[in-house]
Amino acid sequence: MNVIKNLFHFLGSVHFAISLIGVTALFVLAGTIIESKTGSHLFAAYYTYQHPAFLLLLGLFFINILFAALRRWPFKFHHIPFLITHLGLLMILSGVFIKSSFGIQGTMSILEGSGSHEILIPNTYSIKIFKKNTLGTVLSSEYSLHSRSSPFPELQIETVGYAPHSSEITETWIKGDRGVIAGLKPFKVFSEKNFLDISLPISARVSLLPSPAEPWNLYAFYTADVLKVLQRVYLEGLVIKITDSITNQLLYQGLVQEALITPPQWKEGKVFLQLNLEEEYFHIIAQIEDPKNIQTELKIPLTGPEALDNIPERIQYLGRIPIAIDLERPAALLFVQNEVFNDTSLFAFDPYGRIHKESFPAKGLSSLIAYDNGWGGYYAHSTIPFSATRAKRQQKEDADLATLTYTLEKAPPEKLSPPLRMLYNACQKAHCDFAQCCAEYLSLWDKSYSWLYPIEYPTPPLFAQVSKELDWSEESPTIKKCCAWLSRFFLEIDPLLRQGFSPRKILEQFQWPAPLPQGDENFLLTTLTQQIFSVGDMLPDNQAREVVEARLFSAYLRAYGIHLQNMRSSNEALQTEDSIQLECPLTLRHLPKPPLQKVEECVPVVKLKLTKEDKTEELILSYDRSAMGLYWPAFEGEYLLRFQPRSKKIPYHIRLRNARRIDYPHSTQPFSYESDFLIKNFNPKENSKEEEKTISMNNVHETWDGFRFYLAGLSTNEETAAKRVQLVVNHDPAKYWLTYPGGAILSLGIALLFFCRKPRSH
Amino acid sequence: MVGLKKNIRLSCIYKISLFLTLAFGCSQENIPPKSLIYHEILGRKTNQFSEKPWLYRIKAPASWTHVIPAASESLIDTTKFLSEFLIHEDESMIRITIHNFPSEKIESRIPPLAQIARWKQQFSSLDPTSEVSPQSFSGFVGLFFEGTGIINHEPTTMMGWSMQLDPTHYRTLSQPNYHPQLRADVTIKAVGPKNLMAKHYSAIYAFAKSFELIEEIPTGL
Q1: Angle, in degrees to the nearest 10, between helices A521-534 and A549-559
Q2: Cα separation, A322 vs A745, whole angstroms
Q3: Cα of A665 to nearest chain B Cα, Å
Q4: CB-CB: which of A373, A699, A754 is closest to B221?
Q5: So what's the ipTM on this one?
Q6: Which end of chain B is less crowded, N or C, counting CB atoms within 10 A of the terminal residue's CB?
Q7: Can you give the pTM of this predicted structure?
Q8: Which of A139, A679, A719, A760 is the best mutation test for B, with the most CBs of B within 10 A?
Q9: β pairing state of A190-191 and A216-223
Q10: How confident is the model over A571-592, as pLDDT tens digits?
Q11: What is the dihedral of CA A547, A550, A555, A559, to 10 degrees?
């Protein structure tokens, strides 16, 4: 009896209380140190605050407080403040026990316009399963990893493997040692390092464009150096052709691989080539040294809508240079997987040297095709914008010219600018097609790489027919004089421009008297032209009367800013009209890894064995912490599964109407985040009327039955997409009848302890 | 003794004020809304024999006049409004119209900027201060146009929202069990005298932002 009495007194003693406080302090100390060392609150909590020993400690606190109060028995009046204080403490501790046993804490993610009444319990694990029956009705259920029973009777689920941490790799076109394109036979993937000194092998030959196009070579490699493989495959059989674009005479033909080392030469010229595949904007730079005194660099883009255009690198307003560079090669598809990061790149090379590139990262694929919302599986896709027709540079230019001809045909004559109207009238008199004549003239002028039509160039045949009918007398009397002066002036300037001199420097050298605008050189030359036209009255008659009409007419066109470079239309639509579509099934590869100390960042992986009747399937699923990833199909799309936190329904349906960030006035610094919700209570005791609430960072919504809703995050601050809000939902069932009253009673007790102290006797 | 009592009183005041500060210091109450009424809005008939579906709701001050097209009107013509709200004050009036533009496919939707370009053309002259800014609410994403200029020889302000469903919601509502008009584009346009519009700016803004589908947009699976 004495032992019990002593034990009773000990359990209620101050010494025991101090010991408990000491042990608690040690737990807190350990928790703080572990958390600071590992950076993981969860890891620290596992060994301290969530440890059974800590819960036992709280139990002992309860006993100590209870017995300390009971030791005062029989209670006297002056014990009241002490008893009230201890009652408050017991109520708070009871509230803590009830909350930890029956309370919930979870997160809810809602997109503007949608709603939910389901929360995810963090750091819990379950398999969410959807089943679709023959009528298309979808049933859903959850399977706990430790459960022995399946949510669907016909489906047996067994956890046959588990790793606490893993990394997930998305496999697209390359899966192990084989490549996959939907609809084609799998092809072999080679390691590039086995072919360092010999030519790279072709994995397959397939027809990707409608016949009679040649089949495409298909290459697939693993490599540590994607660029090197790209260069090797691209240069395989790549031929360069240099032609005189006026006469269409072939000047040079040879392999680019050789031309990069030995500059291609022809009778009168030379070109230095440089292939750039290092940046995303693949291109060739060709430095031309031409007999016709042209010193320029051509940039030939290999990708995008401008691919294969011969664009003068610096001066574009003079038009094209009179030689053209084209490429030819066998069409090919190249799949390359980076051995280090497992990212896959797809390169497509069309027969004219165009390159199309797409990247398929092993983590975070930007887009995919989900057949039947995932029941039919997931596919990676690629759209290769290559056309079977209008693919060559020449075809593109012809299409541009045809578009221009069509536009000129449809243009009402009265809306034509004065020089074009003069040409139109001349064509009418000469019974010649205006649109054809104009397009032919502009095209040939464009190939001269001169500000004005060169004197030495042949006059276009149709223009030669109508030039006699050009009636300059219909125009202002000074126009022809101005054109003649401009022609004479540019006889000296054009050769310098063709050699690459800056127009501004040329004019400075010539001591041009009028002010010239800053900036764009094209604008500068147009201004110069217009300045000459504006002083036409003051100019003396030009002695050079032998100037050809084609050149005079080009001067008149320049005064109105008319040149083929300014009239070219975009033919993007034409280029993509019959693009190549490729697809491959999406699969995942999981690599188990040692668990991280920061438990919050571990990605567990589970291997499930699914059995239905006599069929068995194995499925490996990675943990989807946010439960917003893909569901994976099983048994040919009869079931969809995802490994995610356990979900729990709450008796409140939350609909998100509008989420926003509020900045400080005249600043971009956020002041607060707010969200407007409609909250509906499912509890039958409550009327199910919707309640409008605004929850913000400092404004938590609390319900009568202990649910608290905190705004934890906003997906984006931008107003360019529907915003997603993260809510933390917390339920403490004892809050209103234990914890809060306990707190109030404890406060009252402490107050009474202060005010009802017995005066101390001296 | 007097000094002791004074000390006790001061400590009481201190403790009570500390308690009150701790208890209510961080609390923030929702401001009760003014007298606002929900108005539900019907869609268009898809053909002469179909019924108009209930689609949207919006919250407007009780003093505003709600004009609903006659039940007999099919509203197949998308130039006709679904609902109109009028704010009268003295001789002046603000008209707020709500239209929707159904689409079969996500690619065939009219870009919000095209609607705004059309609205701009309604001004004979438009102040350069006119502004277009992105907006997203209730699952709709689009543009908000705000401009002042001359319409019919009067200084007029226009506030217009050209909104489309977020692509995620559009895909969800493309399932055959949902009414096709649920995924229609929506415009809300308020036009009125400059001064009157300035006076009701906040109310019109809040009105537009309260626009939503009556039925909540379901989530994927």
Answers
A1: 110
A2: 97
A3: 17
A4: A373
A5: 0.84
A6: N
A7: 0.76
A8: A719
A9: parallel
A10: 544 444 568 899 999 999 999 9
A11: 150
